[in-house]
Structures are given as structure tokens and as C-alpha cells.
Design brief:
The protein has 8 helices and 8 strands. With 227 residues, the chain is an alpha/beta fold. It is globular.
Length: 227
């Protein structure tokens, strides 16, 4: 199995100092940096838009992993691509034609992902597997950080791992991931773990040692089931 990647979600970071927070988690061992874009319509919260993503791009030297929780999503693909996203993940419910949306993301020179809400079945991506670079299983309902992990999503993760087969597709899990739940999602087949409060808890950009401890604990817990 591939090595687990840890993608801290800056939704749990200090919004007054996001650039420094991105640099801090990368310095402490983050593999990717995860940006949650929410529109107050598709999900019940507002976070950031293309301008903030563009402003953060110089502070992220790894992978800028942008999760678009917005609808309609198609009109904003170009703006987020121009902002420097490496990966853009969309929800099947965020537009009428998922296949066309993924084509547009790839045409913009960005890797394409699909995010599945807890009530969205694995079958939603069965006809677009050859267009995706990442599938994200939401193990909370999107919109807010710090929610409790929904364990009923574990069989979906396993089903998607079987569907992916030998394709070069990352299987990401987002929601309630910490050192306790990381082994469960890794055993089910996830290889990218998004963690917000579990990474940023106890530290700050000025004193980020706790970030590193948290990242190492999550990674060790996840990779322990792969040895």
C-alpha cells in the first residue's frame, strides 16, 4: 500500500495568520495543505475564495489541495486554477454534468478530484474514474470543522479502493480524522488523510512544535496498519 499523506486543513488554523500557518505545518511534516472553500449555499458556512487561495499560493511549497464546496461550481474553475490550485475537488451535486466539470478542471491544467458526501454512494464516480486523480470520502457532513467521525463511511472507502484498482487515483478521507480514526480509514484503503483540529490543536504559527507532534501521531497510527 502507498505511504499515507497528511493534508492539514487550514479551516482549523488561525485565519489572521494563514500564510504563516501554511508554512508552519509544512515545516512540521505536512505532505499537502488542504483549503476548504465554502459558499454559504452548498454548505452552511463561508470561508474563502480564489483571491485568498492565490494569496496563499506563495506560502505553500507542497500540494495546494482545494476542496470546492460551492454550487454552481463550473463558473469558478478557471479562477481557482489561476489561483494556483494543484488539485480541485468538486461534489457531484454541485453541477449538472460531473463529466464535463472534470474535463474543465483537467483542461485548466489542474488535477481533478471528486468529493462524496456521507449520503452520496461510491457509484457516483463509477463512470468518471478515468478522469479523476483523487476521490475524497467525507466522513462528516461538509460545512464545519471539528465534527464527529461518521464510521458508516468505512465500507464506502473499502468499496472505492476496490473500484480504483490499479489506477493512479488517491483515496482521501476528510472529517473527524485523528490518531484514533486514522488506522480505521487507512485499513479501509485511504492514502491521504485530511485533518484540521487534530493537527492544529495545541500549537501556533509562532510555536508549531505541537503541529509536528500531531502530524507524526496521525501518520504513525495510520501506517501502523500497513506494516
Amino acid at each position: 500500500m502507498p505511504t499515507v499523506k497528511i493534508a492539514p486543513s487550514i479551516l482549523a488554523a488561525d485565519f489572521a495568520d494563514l500564510g504563516a500557518e501554511c508554512r508552519a505545518v509544512e515545516a512540521q511534516g505536512a505532505d499537502w495543505v488542504h483549503l476548504d472553500v465554502m459558499d454559504g449555499h452548498f454548505v452552511p458556512n463561508l470561508t474563502m475564495g480564489p483571491a485568498i487561495c492565490k494569496a496563499l499560493r506563495p506560502h505553500i511549497s507542497t500540494v495546494m489541495d482545494v476542496h470546492l464546496m460551492i454550487a454552481p461550481v463550473d463558473p469558478f474553475i478557471a479562477a481557482f486554477a489561476e489561483a494556483g490550485a494543484d488539485i480541485l475537488s468538486v461534489h457531484p451535486e454541485a453541477g449538472p454534468h460531473l463529466h464535463r466539470t472534470l474535463q474543465a478542471i483537467r483542461a485548466a491544467g489542474v488535477r481533478a478530484g471528486v468529493a462524496l458526501n456521507p449520503a452520496t454512494p461510491a457509484a457516483a464516480v463509477s463512470e468518471v474514474l478515468d478522469l479523476v486523480d483523487l476521490i475524497c470520502v467525507m466522513t462528516v457532513n461538509p460545512g464545519f470543522g471539528g465534527q464527529k467521525f461518521i464510521a458508516s463511511q468505512l465500507p464506502k472507502i473499502s468499496e472505492l479502493r476496490r473500484m480504483i484498482g490499479d489506477r493512479a487515483i488517491h483515496l482521501q478521507v476528510d472529517g473527524g480524522v485523528d490518531a484514533a480514526t486514522a488506522p480505521r480509514v487507512a485499513e479501509a484503503g485511504a492514502d491521504v488523510l485530511v485533518a484540521g483540529s487534530a493537527v492544529f490543536r495545541g500549537g501556533s504559527a509562532a510555536d508549531p512544535a505541537a503541529y509536528g507532534e500531531n502530524i507524526r501521531a496521525i501518520r504513525a497510527a495510520a501506517e501502523g496498519v500497513r506494516t
